[in-house]
Input
Amino acid sequence: MAAVLWHSRVRKYEAELNACRAESVAVDISDYHPLKPIMVTESKSRRNARRGSTSSTTSSSSSSSTAAADPLSSLLDGTDPLSLFAAASSDVPTLTHSASAGELGRRRRDREEEAVGLDFEPWAAKRVEILARFTTTEKLSINLFMGSDKGKASSPSSAVSEKVRTRLEELDDLEEGSQRELLNLSQQDYVNRIDELNQSLKEAWASDQKVKALKIVIQCSKLLSDTAVIQFYPSKFVLITDILDTFGRLVYERIWTMCSDPNPLPEGFSPDDVNDTAKETCLNWFFKIASIRELIPRLYVEAAILKCNRFLSRSGIQETLPRLTAMIRGIGDPLVAVYARAYLCRVGMVVAPHLKDCLNKNFFDLLATFRQIHGDSVQNQLGLQRVETPVYLTLYSPAIHWILQCVSYRAPEALLTEMMERCKNLGNNALLLNSVMWAFRAEFIATRTTDFIAMIKQCDEAGFPKHLLFGSLGRSLASADPAEAERLSILNDAWKVITKIRSPQDYISCAEIWVEFTCRHFTKREVNAVMADIIKHMTPDRAFEDAYPQLQSVIKKILTYFHDFSVLFSMERFLPFLDMFQKDSVRVEVCRSIMEVFIKHQQEPTRDPVILNALLHVCKTMHDSVNSLTLEDEKRSLAQLINGFIRLVSFGRDFEQQLSFCVEARATFCNLEPVIIQLIHTVNQLAMETRRVMKGNHSRKTAAFVRACAAYSFITIPSLTSIFSRLNLYLLSGQVALANQCLSQADAFLKAAVSVLPEVPRNISVEGKQRSSEGLLLDFINNFMATLLVVPDHPEQGVLYLVRGLLNMVQDYTWEENSNAKVKVYLSAIPLLAAMSQESYLYTIPKVDSNETLYGGDPKFMAEINKLCDTLIGQVLDHLQALGNGEVLRKQSTLAFSVFNALLAHGDLRNNKLNQLAVKLWNLSHKHGHCDTRASVRTLEHIKHLAQQPELSHLSETIPRLSLQSRA
Amino acid sequence: MSVNLDVRLKRANKVYHEGEILAGVVVLISKEAVQHQGISLTMEGVVNLQLSSKSVGVFEAFYNSVKPIQLITSNIEVVKPGKVPSGKTEIPFEFPLQAKGNKVLYETYHGVFVNIQYTLRCDMKRSLLAKDLSKTCEFMIHCQPQKAKVLPSPLDFTIAPDTLQNVRERSSLPKFLIRGHLNTTNCVITQPLAGELVVESSAVAIKSIELQLVRVETCGCAEGYARDATEIQNIQIAEGDVCHGLPIPIYMVFPRLFTCPTLETTNFKVEFEVNVVIVLHDDHLITENFPLKLCRV
Output
């Protein structure tokens, strides 16, 4: 096709802008902001928000100050919808279930548990803890005799039939396979077995085999009298009482359903509401249980169905609880007895939390039998099982904790004092003391801390481990404060003992707790001393290797109380403390938590060399943990933390130091690309900041500095692997260099960008998926060309050197097949060229002379531009023609239309050739009916609008030649 | 063709007293109409006595059992021969509970050698081709409450080596001292047996302390009488080496059916005793016996 002679349309940007601008309404910027009403809406309750939004649009409002808060954070505090929902849903589930009678029963129970209050730590929480803590590697056994249970008073009518019956029963038993002894079970096997039993209990119940269910429960509770493998006993207790709870619930719900016909029982039903059949069934259960031969099963099973007493009489529970309490005295083994008491208290708290006396009675009985623990039979047993006394004593803790927790719950001060006095008077009371400290109100303990310390000191060394005592005390002090005056002496006294603990494990578990107290009430001096002590204890034999969790928690506690990092790092022992974390994963974890706290609490940028040094060290540790196996997510979050740190570093006006910091950081964090990117941004920002300070007029010194910044970016960018980061940063840095009048640097950046272009792969992976890079590339090129407008030509290179370079690259680039991308680039180069040919440019950079000034509208320059345009249009038209051959008419039509638009906007249509070309293009785009008619109509209207302007009046002649498709 | 025949008493606990009316319904459930030759109800109260093989010979025990004593018997025809419609049919009935002649309705009791049982049987006679249907249901009689007030008779006891009888080698016995008391030996059958027991000292560890409830049944017959004591139930009240000096509760619920108020008639006697059994770790077994008198108020 013959060359069209391109002529750019002359644009008067100012006038066009004025013409386009809608009638301006004077709005005070500070008053009106499109985002403001939204922010107000989110930060206040809905009703207020509506008022807020109206006021902010109508008149100036004072709510701008509230709006200034970060909309995200204000959204999160208080009315976080998720937490609200979670709070609401916690009591919803019971309602969503169908209200069957069984569910009703359950709901009732929930209600009653609530009567205890939320501040009561529920059994469920303890349960998990116990299971995790009391484990064994020894072999366990389950001994179940489901067979003829002689104690069950099932004496038949005659002696003869008795034999027959037993025989039949034996047959049954064989079928059930129920008489068995399982030996050599590992702990997990044991747990599984118990689970199975729980399951078969439910099945037996569901299939109406009530007697079998009862047998299972009896046999299970019988296991509780067995103290072989004593270390496992607490866990066994937990597992088996689960079964008992299930059983109790099943019985209660069954009787409940029996009376719920026709109407369910009311909430606070009385025995009179219960029908006779239900009562009889209930009574039957109690008679059956009363005839269980062994003490322990009888006790546990009756406790399990304690609640059923409600069906029989008002005072049933009240009478039964003390009786059961007294019954426990018959249990000789103190450990078994104490757990039985714990169970009774547990059931008691659920069923009748108001019956405090019984709880107290349990505790006093416990005190009365306390000497049993040190009795001969216990000692013999321990000898047999080779369990040491301190270990044995800790087995009591969960049960005694629980009993005391029940006793002390909302108990009057006087009672607590009495309890404590009683414990004090018993010999060898460390175990009790421990539980008292654990279970009583922290405030109660805190006010008597000195007494407690004295008591602990008196305790027998051979008995209960002292570190546990101090641990419990520390635990209370962590949540309640002792009197101000006593604090120091408390710390001194406690630490004197703690520091003497020999075993590093015991030491650290205790020290960890006391760190909190120290941090809470004392200054860095004491905390430093504590850390020094910990280091001293944990370093020998690399003891710290086994105590990472505790050490980590020490750090966490310190971080919660010390937010001022200059204080934190001025503790000499802090960094040596960190050095104890030698396992990489833990080390990184700790560094991470430090950085998180820093980013969260450091309000202002810092230049404190101590902080910087230390944090740089911390960040370096994080960075160094990255290797080829590190996950992407992990890298990203590490990089985010380091970036957060870099952003918080500022040397104020000392730009040079900031730059050298960046240099150092670049060397340190070379493996994390996001950090490098952040550093480049920081340096660019630094350059711009310099420019701002100098108000655009660089002195010789600042100019050199800015060039140094550019150099920094220039040598850093190539190390990035992500091609688009590289491109964008080149462009950005080029712009910054340009803004700072570093022309050759800017040139170098842009040249580098152009030279990188061919390397752009056609597909890049975005979040693990392969995507075409075309869109990104086009975006970049457009952006790049926009910058090129203001870049002055290099004096030693030819005219429009960079534009040509870019276009050449585009030409050589291997685009995707069947893609219009190349043509699109050409098309978008036309506006650039058209803009370049204007007398004064749309935008310029202060103190940088663009081509407009350099060439001053030189006709040679113009001719060069026009020639370039001709080539481009020629290329585009070639492409259009090629499209006409295939099945891609729609593409052709669209493309033709956009070429037409480009001509219309940027070409001088007074030129005949151009005019003809435009008309041809219009027709081409409409030829095959693939054109968007609405767009055509709008375009026509636009042209008519333009034609009204005097300098574009020639367009009115063109209009008749542009026919619409629908009319064709 | 399946017919379901059932007898349902009005009272859920099936407990009646002499002079009351035993009321209930015969329930017939069938999918089709049922042809029958009449439905009848038989109410019967019997004391069965059996001689133990210990007191008389084995064969005598088997064949020579004492004739049962009928306390009450009554028979009524509920429905005349005919047809029962399909579906569920309920036929109410009532029996006056009145003993024969000058006899008394003893309380229901299931023992080994003495059994006092009351039953209600429903029979449905049918034509030759179909089997007769029968359904038996037991009901309980509680004897009239005793008029006189029960006088509490508390009992303190001490068990020590020298209080024991029937000891073979007194010298081999370990030293021990156990004190205790029963709240009363005149027990109300609906109230548990209660008391306390304190192990004051024991040279050998205690393995277990149990309460053994024992029935003593006496049957008179031509050759004289047979008296046998058998265990009803055994309830453990202490397990393991219990804390010395601390009172342990004695508590036992009297099982239903297997106990009744102490009974003494011309032909037989039913009495109860409780044994406190202490098992020591060296398997020494120490038993202390306490006769009880049960009554109903």
